[in-house]
Amino acid sequence: MSNSQNITKEIRRIEVVTLNVKKEIKTLKNRVRAYKGWTKRYRKQQQELKQDNLAISKERDNAVKELELKQQHLLETVEEAKQAKELRDQALLQLDEVINKIEQYKEICKKANKISYADKIYLIKEAEKLFFDEEIITTDIELDSTGKPQLESGQAALGRYLLDR
Predict the structure, then answer these.
(1) Distances in whole angstroms, Cα of residue 89 to Cα of each of 83, 85, 116, 157
(2) How far, in Å, CA of 51 to CA of 148, rounded?
């Protein structure tokens, strides 16, 4: 009986080994399935990350383009502001010149009020000299016996003079 016991033992041992191998195969199958699931999720996440990366890259490129446009617009605006400032400064200089000429004309008017023979034509000529750098009105000044100019200073004379021009 020893042979048959040995055979029975051997069969049981083989059955146990077979069961252990089946369990190990089942465990390995489960691990393979888990690994396949993990790799599938990993690939899916990798694909999603690529798509997200592309979307973010597009957004970044659009933002860079928009920034470049805004920068160009800002540079143009700064250039326009510089030109406007230069024009303003020129206008202020011209205004200062006009103010200075007006002040000079006021002084001439004060002097003319002190001179008894000065008339409106004299003031007009002085204004033309100051503001236009030339004398437009040309009249002959007649001197009286004392050597002082005698000009017609009435409003009618001035009107006739302007009509003659």
Answers:
(1) 10, 6, 42, 42
(2) 100
Cβ atoms of 118 and 112 within 8 Å: the answer is yes
Structure token digits, residue 124: 């007009």
pTM greater than the 0.85 cutoff: no
Distance CA 103, CA 113 (A): 15
pLDDT digits (tens, 9 = 90+) for 92-139: 999 998 888 888 888 877 777 766 565 667 777 777 777 776 555 554
> Using CB atoms within 10 A of its CB, is residue 37 exposed (0-12), middle (13-18) or buried (19+)?
exposed
Please list, in sequence order, all residues whose beta carbon lies within 8 angstroms of the beta carbon of residue 119, skipping any fewer than 6 positions away. Answer: 151, 152, 153
